[in-house]
Write a structure and sequence with these properties.
The complex is a heterodimer of chains A (153) and B (476).
Chain A lengths: L8 E2 L8 E6 L4 E7 L2 H16 L8 E8 L3 H19 L1 E11 L2 E10 L2 H4 L7 E2 L5 E4 L5 E8 L1
Helix pairs in contact in A: 1-2
Chain B lengths: L6 E4 L2 E4 L9 E4 L2 H6 L2 H10 L9 E11 L1 E9 L6 E3 H4 L6 E10 H18 L14 H17 L27 H7 L12 E10 L2 H7 L5 E8 L2 H21 L11 E3 L3 H35 L6 E7 L1 E10 L2 E10 L2 E2 L10 H4 L4 E7 L3 E7 L3 H5 L2 E2 L9 H7 L2 H10 L3 E3 L3 H6 L8 H10 L3 E14 L1
Parallel strand pairs in B: 3-4, 18-19
Antiparallel strand pairs in B: 1-2, 2-3, 4-5, 5-13, 6-10, 7-9, 7-11, 8-9, 8-19, 12-13, 14-17, 15-16, 16-19
Helix pairs in contact in B: 4-9, 5-9, 6-8, 8-9
The chains are: A alpha+beta (153), B alpha+beta (476).
């Protein structure tokens, strides 16, 4: 499903070949990461997810590993984002750095972050889950991969 | 949306004629201005819902509708299991049984004004709000299952609530058919420390003044008196519901394909009601309903404790507790015959009219209280289910103001600090862990709740009883 949506928020340090943006949805938030590989696009999408919650700098104090799988790369993006949402919720943490390795239908991910501090992070909202709305993982004509969907908050 | 795309049946009824794979029409209840302001996606999503197998009569949409995921927010769709009908995790939503409860205090606005700042600070301290806040309750596996089976009844048995609340909660406070065994360990883990927490986003606890009465008799029946004050809580099934929604959404994408159901949008993922996945989801979803009922009962208890400190001789009496993200089995009349249907309401409130047998005796004359959460600046409404709601939309009405603007657009337009200060100047105290969260939920980001409820009244879904304006808002 092709969906044209204007980006309204982009990470300030976005490099030419990797970065993320958020796009509007009536009640929720759309996000998209991009990069030279699917893995980088997924890592950038994860950074956009953290920014949905907090603008603050996230210290990379603790390392968490996650693994997920799905029959195709689009469903794998949803699984990846949901794995982060789950760790955020049960560990009460925010993550500021990510590493993704994809092999076939399997994803191995590493999250680095710190416990949520309501004063420091002032969390704006809580992601409930990644949705299949505006879900798209694709390689553009410029060779860059893009990965995004709407997050229910 | 362009009104010309619809067949206009009357002032507030807009029909999408069935085309392509649509099995039934789509029907949106709204006035012309609300229709014009709605995103085209609402049209598309309504038409998509109308393609699902076993859908009965029409895909209905309430006046507060906005672009959702799969189903529009504000959608009502009923399915007949005997006709291959489906159940959809996306049609219920991630926050299963998210809802609103309102409690009467019998206190006046001036009673609150005398302690307003201390009361706001105490409520904010006592009621965990926002991501990263944890409740003082931690559930072991046995208690978790007991809570998932018994809902608000469980909370009351543990001392977090009052027994007379039960007949003022849908399903008597306990959703039958809950199957904790069908709730994953991950979902339970996500909930272990979350009981009694408000959550974030558009969830809140508000102290509200009864600013205007529209229907004197119904207001009397509900115990609502002008210039008195109520406590309203908006929240849902927290992490447990979110995880159940996430897991079954994925499973139903596969289940739909296996059942040969062509999905115009993967977010509409569903399974036949008469399937193993469908039945498992029903058991898990009902457990999540109990989680939400227990959670609101506990938060209500915390509010009672804070009020008891400031006003020792005051009881907080529950007016009603409604859920607006559910699928319920209900009997409805279609073509003169009564049928058992699986009614999905996603961002829509059940609105039983006067005389409905499932209403408690005290509410049978007026109809069910329909609690409409507005925004923190403009206020909220109490409606009563209309007699015609049954015929119009399987006894349903709207659930809130509905967003008019995305969170991003709101952030660009307002600063949280400024909103808190402006509202304080108007006598409304906001307490929230996040200024950005306040900006995202700015009153101006919502539709005109007055226009929404007026449209619901004109459409014969529910009639206005009272308008409430906030005095204190604890925002997650």
């Amino acid at each position: 499903m092709a969906l044209f949506v204007p980006a309204v928020k982009t990470n300030a340090e976005a490099l030419i070949d990797r970065g993320w943006e958020q796009f509007p949805h009536d009640a929720d938030v759309g996000l998209r990461g991009w990069g030279p590989s699917i893995e980088v696009a997924f890592e950038e999408a994860a950074l956009a997810l953290t920014d949905v919650v907090s603008d603050a700098e996230i210290a990379v104090e603790a390392r968490i590993e996650v693994a997920c799988e799905a029959p195709d790369v689009e469903l794998l993006l949803v699984e990846w984002l949901n794995a982060i949402i789950y760790e955020m919720a049960v560990r009460s943490m925010l993550f500021g750095q990510f590493e993704v390795k994809i092999s076939g239908t399997q994803l191995q991910g590493v999250l680095w972050g710190e416990p949520i501090d309501q004063v420091k992070h002032a969390p704006a909202c809580e992601p409930k889950g990644a949705t299949y709305t505006a879900l798209r993982v694709a390689q553009g004509s410029d060779g860059l991969w893009s990965a995004g969907c709407v997050i229910d908050v | 949306m362009d009104p010309a795309r619809f067949t206009r049946i009357d002032e507030t009824t807009w029909q999408i004629e069935p085309t392509g794979a649509m099995r039934v029409p789509g029907v949106i209840y709204a006035d012309e201005d609300l229709i014009r302001a709605m995103d085209d996606k609402v049209y598309e999503q309504t038409a998509n819902v109308a393609t699902l197998p076993g859908i009965v009569k029409a895909a209905y949409v309430m006046p507060d509708a906005h672009w959702g995921y799969g189903f529009p927010i504000g959608g009502v769709a009923a399915f007949d299991a005997a006709e291959g009908g489906v159940i959809s995790a996306g049609g219920v939503g991630f926050d299963v049984s998210c809802g609103v409860r309102t409690m009467l205090t019998g206190l006046t606005i001036s009673d609150i004004k005398q302690v307003q700042t201390s009361l706001a600070d105490s409520l904010y301290r006592q009621i965990p709000a926002g991501l990263g806040s944890k409740g003082s309750i931690s559930l072991d596996p046995l208690e978790m299952d007991a809570m998932l089976r018994r809902g608000a009844r469980w909370a009351i048995e543990r001392g977090w609530g009052e027994a007379h609340d039960l007949n003022r909660i849908e399903e008597g406070g306990q959703m039958a058919g809950a199957q904790p065994d069908h709730v994953s360990e991950r979902a339970k883990e996500r909930q272990r420390r979350e009981m009694g927490t408000l959550g974030s986003g558009n969830h809140y606890l508000e102290i509200q003044a009864i600013a205007e009465i529209f229907d004197k008799e119904a207001a009397e029946g509900f115990g609502l008196k002008q210039n008195e004050v109520v406590v309203t809580i908006h929240c849902g099934s927290r992490g447990l519901g979110h995880q159940i929604g996430t897991e079954f959404l994925r499973e139903m994408v596969t289940a739909a394909a296996e059942a040969g159901i062509a999905l115009p949008d993967r977010e509409l993922a569903c399974a036949p009601i008469k399937s193993e996945v469908g039945q498992r989801y029903l058991g898990a979803m009902r457990a999540a309903i109990n989680c939400a009922l227990a959670n609101r009962e506990i938060i209500g208890h915390y509010a009672r404790k804070v009020f008891a400190h400031f006003f020792p001789n005051t009881d907080l009496t529950l007016l009603f507790d409604v859920s607006h993200n559910t699928c319920k089995v209900e009997k409805h009349k279609t073509n003169g015959a009564s049928r058992e249907l699986f009614v999905h309401r996603k961002g829509a409130t059940r609105a039983f009219g006067p005389g409905h047998p499932d209403l408690p005796e005290a509410l049978r004359k007026t109809g069910q209280p329909v609690l409409i959460g507005g925004s923190m600046g403009t206020g909220s409404y109490v409606l009563a289910g209309a007699a015609t709601s049954e015929k119009k939309a399987f006894a349903s009405a709207c659930h809130g103001a509905g967003r008019a603007m995305s969170r991003h657009a709101a952030l660009r337009k307002w600063s949280g600090r400024q909103i808190v200060d402006d509202l304080a100047d108007r006598g409304i105290l906001i307490r929230s862990p996040s200024a950005r969260g306040v900006a995202e939920e700015a009153p101006g980001a919502y539709k005109d709740v007055g226009a929404v409820v007026l449209a619901a009244e004109h459409a014969g879904l529910a009639r206005r009883v009272a308008r409430l304006t906030p005095l204190i808002c604890i925002k997650g």
